[in-house]
Specification:
This protein has a domain at about 25-75. Strand 3 and strand 4 form a beta hairpin. The chain contains 2 helices and 4 strands. Helices cover about 15% and strands about 20% of the residues. The strands form 2 sheets. The chain has a two-stranded antiparallel sheet. The protein has helices at about 25-30, 60, and strands at about 40-45, 50-55, 65-70, 70-75. It is an alpha+beta fold and about 80 residues long. The N and C termini lie far apart (about 40 Å).
């Protein structure tokens, strides 16, 4: 009988504010490459767990950065 190994996982919790905001832990932001002004995408299937991923940009396609309220953001998202 073949054995199956599972990679270790970490579970974290966060509190939702009255404005519906959640602070992502630094460890999670670092792992996903999320910085101030980054965008994240939620994949919400009809059943099963919700997935979170950073929205990736291709600056060659987008044409550079825009600045808004001191935050740099790409001009357009790279669509999947």
């Amino acid at each position: 009988m073949a054995s199956t190994s599972q990679s270790p996982s970490t579970t974290v919790e966060a509190t939702v504010t009255s404005k519906g905001q959640v602070t992502l832990l630094k460890e999670l932001r670092n792992r996903l490459g999320i910085q101030n002004g980054s965008r994240i995408r939620f994949n919400i299937p009809s059943s099963g767990p919700v997935q979170l991923e950073p929205v990736l940009y291709d600056l060659k396609i987008c044409g550079g950065w825009q600045t808004k309220a001191g935050n740099r953001a790409p001009l357009c998202p790279l669509r999947k």
